[in-house]
Predict the 3D structure of the following.
Amino acid sequence: MCKCILCNNKFDELTEEHIIPYALGNDTLKANILCKDCNSDLGSFVDCSLIDNIAIQIKRMDLKISGRGKVPNPFKQGVDAKGNKYIVNNDFKPTIINSITKDGNRFRAHASNKEELKKIVRKSLTRDGYYSEKINNVMDMIDKIEANKFKPELIYDIEINLNDYCLAILKIAYEYAYLRLGDSYLNDTRANEIKDIIRAKIDNKITANHYKNMFVNQINEEFSGIIAANNLKDICHFIMLMPTANNCIGCLISLFGDINLSYIVLVSRDQNKYTIPDPDLILIKSE
């Protein structure tokens, strides 16, 4: 029987968990450590906050990391200052979304070309009961309009929940600490604190106090040299356990080898219990 490291229940077999999500290009740092339900719950309630983060999606788009779907395009939909909606392809070419608004006998329509414009105007006028002659006159007017080419300035409304984002980093640290420190880590006081925080999120019982106790911090100058020295930006994820002040163990996580996406997480308050392993470099899998 195998014990799930999140729910503590025993099963005949456990499912494969990617310590750093597969959607971030990790297909090597993984282990059978979770039951099926906990694995699914982590994806739905924890990993999603990391995978859907705008900074991560920009990285994935730049490096062409598809994960199990398509390469994300965080700029796919935007609006201009007038509220017109656009679709933006992976080459950053915008296409206005067809729209028509009416005010009495007047209307304003937007489309990417004249044929599309005529199509939506004809459909609207027909639905409003206009005769064919009137509709044809409007079509003739559209034909005479000189098309304008311009580069729209698009506006994006981005909302980031930093607490949930950091919770996803905490999950990586917990799983990695277990993977490298072994079964005894499950009895560590700090390990159980982390597990309780993750479970509270899954069970929709998380509180402000849980978030306050996460101990997830962006790295400072003390640790930035470790990341910079590897010079592996955009090639690897970098993760390691290391002794820190007050006899603790920290988990240093650098996503994409990027200092701006690097964190130190408290994973144990008693380094004397463990032998600190070597760091891991995870080659990023892209298209």
In short: The chain has two domains: 2-69+160-270, 77-144. Residues 2-69+160-270 form one domain. The mean pLDDT is 91. The first strand starts at residue 2 and ends at 3.
